[in-house]
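Good morning C.,

I know you're traveling, so I'll keep this short. The sequence:
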Amino acid sequence: MKLDKQEAIIEGILFALGESVEISKLAEVLEVSQEEVRGILQKMMKRYRGENRGIEIMEIEDAVQMCTKKEIYEYLIKIAKQPKRHVLTDVLLETLSIIAYKQPITKLEIEKIRGVSCAHAVNKLVEYNLVCELGRLDAPGRPLLFGTTEEFLRSFGVQSIEELPVLNQDQLEEFKQQAEEEMNLKLDV
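The tokens, ready to paste straight into the viewer:
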């Protein structure tokens, strides 16, 4: 099968499905290796970037998805009635970061880290499709385990959790000191 035909097939599949498709499934459909599919995808991604197109192909873990480029969002707003744009408050961002770095994690574990109830925050993050239930912990009460979704990866522009920034020891110490200072201020009041 010619390269043009393979690209057309991949483009058609990604456009029609509108969600991520595993590279292994594309390889199966095209009857080629996953490495060949990755090569075709890299050429397509490069071409989309070079041609100043309104779409891009985004790689998410071992899958790819056709998406609208971020630069087009303001125009999308003009034509769409109410595009989903969720506001992430400090509480939601804090809870989301705990889940992203500690997943799979239970609500109780999140509450131990944050020091306050997290039910509302976790429910909002699930509603926004940034977090999902991964299963249940094999422990008394069988609490739910939570982790991030593909939507989280897309929203934050990373291909996998491994790409999340890592804090160095100096930053951790600085954050601990700030938290202790905040606690002391609250106790003084």
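Safe travels,
E.
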